[in-house]
Design goal:
By secondary structure, the protein is an alpha/beta fold. It contains 15 helices and 14 strands. 43% of the residues lie in helices and 19% in strands. Helix 11 packs across helix 14. The radius of gyration is 21 Å and the shape is globular. The model has no long low-confidence stretch (mean pLDDT 93).
Length: 410
């Protein structure tokens, strides 16, 4: 069977949606399907090119044909630049679809809506089965970071979202709250399938902290290491962490490390420098094997989001934190998806977002409670094993694809 996947993030991008799209494509290729991925050149999370690029390029990795195209990268976190980026993704996808053999199945990934629109239109032209994979809710996300602040922009965005959804045979969501959101917008529940994101439980698992790795991450020998990993953008609001570290100046032997990249990183580093703080530092993104050792080296793993981020994002780092068997501290809206998952799992402590004193107090309290940290860590690992096993998620994808394409010629 021929499968076409359209998504603007793909390997070698190491954070965000890219690794899941890569796993999905390589899974289908490994089970004997002919898989083509239409994507862009690597640019996430800082929205800067990670390698030399041309207008278009074709390559093959792990049995997958990859068609990459050039897009406009946003220069500023504004609605104009985001719309330009998303629209250029759609145009790039359309151009790169020229010459693709008619697929039996089209899988389009949100974000972006414009890219998914192209996937939906192509599926209608080809009369192919189609799946819309919703990794986040772009309209809600745009509102939460202040990009969609006008009523006109919101109405146009909502119209586009509904137009895209109508084009697809099935919608796959990665979280229950996403399902509830779509149902509230009038989507018929049987059209929606829940398949959570996943983690390789054999690769990410509890391990003893490596003192050398711990020293490398922290930049010194420390007694208590708090680690944040992943994207550094508007939704994460990491200035809150820097302000919390100002209240933690007197905590001897404590270090907070923000490991990752994104458009907000330069501003975070400037804030650290201006404050003269020595108890917080940034670190670069790392390969997967190094990333797992980083998680094991930490005493406490951190999630931070802006207060207005509620339903729009399921942080992929969260399930990796749980799988690593480390306690979690989350400064997030108590009504958010992240808070709901942490509370269900019993894997961490949730404090108010954008309240640095609350975050600082929670770090102090958890530092003094090793037994509580161990209990939270065990609960998180148990929850990850029950809910987020990679092999189970990919088998659910296989079953769904088999259901939608039964009767078609392979």
């Amino acid at each position: 069977m021929r499968i076409l996947i359209l998504g603007h993030n793909y390997a070698p991008e190491r954070v965000g949606i890219g690794p899941y799209t890569t796993d999905l494509a390589e899974h289908f290729a490994g089970t004997g399907h002919a898989v083509t991925v239409i994507t862009t050149f690597p640019h996430y999370p800082r929205y800067r090119w990670q390698e030399d690029q041309t207008w278009a390029r074709r390559e093959h990795q792990a049995g997958v044909e990859i068609r990459r195209g050039w897009v406009f990268l946003p220069r500023k976190p504004t609605a104009f630049w985001r719309i330009l980026f998303d629209t250029s993704v759609g145009c790039s996808f359309l151009l790169n679809s020229i010459g693709v053999r008619r697929p039996n199945l089209v899988i389009a990934i949100v974000p972006t809506l414009q890219g998914a629109l192209v996937g939906g239109i192509l599926s209608k032209i080809w009369n192919s089965a189609s799946i819309l994979l919703v990794h986040d809710l772009p309209i809600e996300a745009g509102i939460s970071v202040g990009m969609l602040h006008s009523d006109v922009a919101r109405r146009v965005g909502t119209w586009l979202e509904h137009s895209v959804i109508r084009l697809f045979t099935r919608i796959v969501v990665v979280g229950e709250r996403f399902r509830e959101n779509l149902v509230s917008k009038g989507i018929h529940p049987p059209r929606i399938t829940l398949i959570p994101n996943w983690v390789d439980l054999d690769a990410v698992m509890p391990a003893e902290a490596d003192p050398e790795m711990r020293h490398t991450i922290a930049g010194a020998d420390v007694e208590f290491l708090v680690l944040y990993t992943g994207s550094m953008g508007a939704k994460q609001g990491l200035e809150n962490v820097v302000h919390a570290c100002e209240y933690l100046r007197g905590e001897r032997g404590l270090r907070v490390v923000l490991a990752g990249d994104g458009p907000a990183r330069p501003g975070i580093e400037n804030a650290i420098a201006r404050s003269g703080l020595t108890n917080v530092r940034t670190a670069d993104l790392q390969p997967v094997d190094y990333f797992v050792r980083m998680l094991a080296a930490a005493d406490l793993l951190l999630i931070n989001q802006r207060e207005d981020v509620v339903d729009s994002v399921v942080p992929s780092k969260l399930i990796h934190y749980m799988a690593a068997g480390r306690p979690i501290l989350a400064a997030v809206n108590k009504a958010s998806v992240a808070a709901q998952l942490i509370n269900e799992a019993g894997s961490g402590i949730v404090v108010l977002p954008q309240e640095p004193t609350h975050l600082a107090d929670a770090i102090r309290d958890l530092r003094r409670e090793p037994d509580l940290r161990a209990k939270l860590a065990r609960r998180g690992r148990d929850y990850a094993e029950q809910r987020y096993a990679k092999r189970v998620a990919l088998q659910n994808w296989t079953d769904l694809v088999t259901e939608l394409t039964s009767g078609q010629q392979s």
